[in-house]
């Protein structure tokens, strides 16, 4: 696959929703250890609402309109800390892809980078704070460094995100609910870093199919 159009992005969102649903209990367990145990449920509810919104057919217009629809839906259904962050991420993807109907590997990397910048702007988290930012920062770096085709770019991003999500375990949380635990947050992986890895892994799978 050379370029992603809305048709392929829809396959990604369906795949992501299925993977989030399948891993909902795992995400809730991770969140139960250092938060309030609802991250899997929040994400599953949000993506189910997105599928409902999209099931009628293609969103009219460019990729901007498509991502905006997803962002608005996540914003109004996920809740908690992750809702505004993932909602804002997709809204930013929408802003940055306005006027475009397809994306190649390098432009996808730049788009995800813009989405990450929005998450950092809203949440004020930096790498090392034990949040989804820890998975997304190395993922964006790897995607940009990989260059080339969509399969290579997205695989690099997914692998970096997964490794980084695993590596959040020894960190002490400095943002979000988990930060209330102080040192007791050490020794558990961050749930949001794991959901971010799941989203990028599903993207890599559809780009390699
Ligand atoms: P809540 O904590 O409100 O119950 P969730 O459980 O759905 O919300 O989401 C928790 C996840 O949100 C955390 O694992 C972390 O990755 C992410 N998160 C929380 N606060 C921030 C922040 N300020 N910046 C980035 N990510 C954050
Ligand atoms: Mg929670
Ligand atoms: Mg909550």
From TrEMBL:
InterPro entries: DhaK_L_YcgS, DhaL_dom, DhaL_dom_sf, Dihydroxyacetone_Kinase. SUPFAM superfamilies: DhaL-like (SSF101473). Keywords: Kinase, Transferase. It holds the Pfam family Dak2. Residues 7-205 form the DhaL domain. GO terms for cellular component: cytosol. GO terms for biological process: glycerol catabolic process. GO terms for molecular function: glycerone kinase activity. NCBIfam families: dha_L_ycgS. This is Dihydroxyacetone kinase subunit L. It comes from Telmatospirillum siberiense. The gene is dhaL.
């Amino acid at each position: 696959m050379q370029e992603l159009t809305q048709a392929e992005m829809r396959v990604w969102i369906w795949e992501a929703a299925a993977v989030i649903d399948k891993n909902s209990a795992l995400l809730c367990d991770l969140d139960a250890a250092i938060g309030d145990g609802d991250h899997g449920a929040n994400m599953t509810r949000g993506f189910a609402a997105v599928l409902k919104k999209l099931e009628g057919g293609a969103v009219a217009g460019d990729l901007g309109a498509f991502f905006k629809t997803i962002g608005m839906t996540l914003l109004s259904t996920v809740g908690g800390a992750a809702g505004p962050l993932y909602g804002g991420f997709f809204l930013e993807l929408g802003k940055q892809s306005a006027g475009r109907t397809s994306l190649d590997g390098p432009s996808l990397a730049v788009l995800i980078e813009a989405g990450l910048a929005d998450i950092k702007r809203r949440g004020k988290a930096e790498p090392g704070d034990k949040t989804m930012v820890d998975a997304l920062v190395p993922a964006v770096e790897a995607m940009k460094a990989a260059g080339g085709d969509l399969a290579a770019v997205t695989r690099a991003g997914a692998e970096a995100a997964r490794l980084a999500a695993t590596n959040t375990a020894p960190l002490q949380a400095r943002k979000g609910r988990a930060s209330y635990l102080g040192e007791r947050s050490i020794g558990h992986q961050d749930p949001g870093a794991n959901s971010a890895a799941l989203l990028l892994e599903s993207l890599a799978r559809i780009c390699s199919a």
